[in-house]
Amino acid sequence: MDAGVTPTMAAVPTPLGPSTVPTALHAPFDLGAWSHAQLARVEDALSRWVCSDAPAGLGEAMRYAVLDGGKRLRPLLVLAASEAVGGLDEAALRAACSVELIHAYSLVHDDMPCMDNDVLRRGKPTVHVRFGEARALLAGDALQALAFGLLTPEGPQVPPAMQATLCRMLAQAAGADGMAGGQAIDLASVGRALSEAELRQMHRLKTGALLQGSVVMGAACGQAAPAALAALSQYGAALGLAFQVVDDILDVTADSATLGKTAGKDAASDKPTYVSLLGLERAQAHAGELRIEAHAALAASGLPDTRALAALADMVVNRSH
Amino acid sequence: MDAGVTPTMAAVPTPLGPSTVPTALHAPFDLGAWSHAQLARVEDALSRWVCSDAPAGLGEAMRYAVLDGGKRLRPLLVLAASEAVGGLDEAALRAACSVELIHAYSLVHDDMPCMDNDVLRRGKPTVHVRFGEARALLAGDALQALAFGLLTPEGPQVPPAMQATLCRMLAQAAGADGMAGGQAIDLASVGRALSEAELRQMHRLKTGALLQGSVVMGAACGQAAPAALAALSQYGAALGLAFQVVDDILDVTADSATLGKTAGKDAASDKPTYVSLLGLERAQAHAGELRIEAHAALAASGLPDTRALAALADMVVNRSH
Predict the structure, then answer these.
(1) Is B99 helix (H, G, I), strand (E, B) or coil?
(2) Which of A292, B5, B216, B281 has the fewest CB atoms nearer than 10 Å to its CB?
(3) Which helix (H) or strand (E) holds B109?
């Protein structure tokens, strides 16, 4: 199926309204079936790679943090981006699991008493409630190391240069200029008034960096042209921001049972959100605009089939939890 | 200066008593001058690479955790091993800093109230005392990511295959099968009787993995023969264990001012140590045996000049803090 995007169109990445998005991007695509197949691979791989045999209960805590839960949005973004560029399967599966491990470790540490002090995650007791704080801290640390370990297998299955690139991207997305930096801004922002620019910067790092990183890591599993990579990166940035805007909306509109975590928490702790800044209606409109921006970037990528990525952007904006 | 080790000797790595260690290994080598020059490079590089511009005070906490303190034993091991194999300078400097960042992050997390609850480190307030627990947690997390970031620079200065190998080794040394796993055993062991084998396994992971990892990462910056790499790895294992045995000895023989951290802590918290297991005298004898084992491995490596590594092993065993 041809997306009908010519290289000439791709070379001019102008913002496109919804009516100008090439129609093939809206051609029937069964995200449910696609995700189901991909998630089976991801869950199987995570279960193999996050071993229970780490010493003194550490492996058990790591598996508890990673398995049987989560939407796996980041792995799906890696796999969809890799598919879009014809990427290497083994590399993409490893990258998909590595970003999920980083995400999982960040949740473990984020939930700890010295951070958000949350006791419920995905409807289960958080890791430190179940295994104690010290083991939760170590499990998070070990998951981060394992993420880089997954990206660097011995043997010929993933070319060394690709391994190095993936590690570079993951370190960037996870570190002080990415997720960890965003969390530091978040910490410092409680009870302070932020401008929209400051809020955007916080979320660009805290949530956006790893979501965007997932897309560019998927793209790095193949041999896409620089223009296509730039467009996918732009898609990832828009999707990352949309994810956070919708998260802020759901924090006030959904209940804890639907979310699988404590609802209304941000408002209660006086954290700045898109809803507190823009109001509910404008926040919802902003999420819609970001969805369109994500679609436009895909159209501009010149890649023949980006339907999975397009469907994931829709899912992020339309989700109810 | 020729070490007088012939390839034939190197191919037969038999355990050597002190009298059979080739004499050139004991030829004059000024460890002080060598370390001084190497440390100047390491401190300068760490100060450049651990930036203060990470957001919301995170960079400040990271620099506090890393700069102006520490013996830098791990970086020196990387640089000495790299020198022994004629390794690539830029790769070795990056690897040296990366292992120090892993070490620094582990200390930050280890000192936190939910772990060792220590308030003094290198004579200064610990990171969580100075910056708060949440920021200490994030600073540790960001330092681990940065360690992998340092190993994967863009551009031609470090070959991609070497980058990938170094990341693999670091992930192995830091993760559940290395340092983090050892810490989990340590946690679980408080108040329990351990056999010497169990104690050895705990320290092989907790302290030994990163020390040995430093040696093999340094060796991976060059093109040594597999037999030489195996010998250096053996050297690293002996040195790593010796380091811990001496640590346990110093915990009972030195005072807090000399150590720069709380002395007598392990005994007070009922942690098993080599001294509690073997007694002081046998622990001291064991440290001496491990030193000889380290020297024998260097002799068996067949490498022409391993004097810096030999001197570091002596320093580890003879140190007073």
Answers:
(1) helix
(2) B281
(3) helix B89-110
Question: pLDDT averaged over chain A?
Answer: 88
Neighboring chain A residues of B146 at a CB cutoff of 8 Å = 171, 175-176
Query: Which residue range is the domain that position B278 belongs to?
Result: 7-318
pLDDT tens-digit map of B28-73: 799 999 999 999 999 999 999 998 888 889 999 999 999 977 889 9
The answer to whether residue A2 is domain-embedded is: no
Q: What is the SS3 assignment for chain A?
A: CCCCCCHHHHHCCCCCCHHHCCHHHHCCCCHHHHHHHHHHHHHHHHHHHCCCCCHHHHHHHHHHHHCCCCCCHHHHHHHHHHHHCCCCHHHHHHHHHHHHHHHHHHHHHHCCCCCCCCCEECCEECHHHHHCHHHHHHHHHHHHHHHHHHCCCCCCCCCHHHHHHHHHHHHHHHCCCCHHHHHHHHHHHCCCCCCHHHHHHHHHHHHHHHHHHHHHHHHCCCCCCHHHHHHHHHHHHHHHHHHHHHHHHHHHHCCHHHHCCCCCHHHHCCCCCHHHHHCHHHHHHHHHHHHHHHHHHHHHCCCCCCHHHHHHHHHHHHCCC
Domain count, chain A: 1
Conformation bin of residue A56: beta by default, left when phi > 0, alpha when psi is -120 to 50: left
pLDDT at A193 > cutoff 50: yes
CB pairs under 8 A between A and B: 187
Inter-chain residue contact A54 with B146, CB threshold 8 Å: no
pLDDT, tens digit, 9 for 90 and up, residues A95-154: 999 999 999 999 999 999 999 999 998 889 999 999 999 999 999 999 999 999 999 999
Is the residue at B162 inside a domain?
A: yes
pLDDT of residue A268: 60
Q: Does A199 touch chain B (CB under 8 A)?
A: no
Range in A209-218, A231-240, B11-20, B114-123 with the lowest mean pLDDT = B11-20
- As for the ipTM of the complex, it is 0.89
Q: Which of A283, A217, A263 is nearest to A80 (CA)?
A: A217
Residue B56: give its domain's CATH number.
1.10.600.10
Q: What is the pTM of this model?
A: 0.90
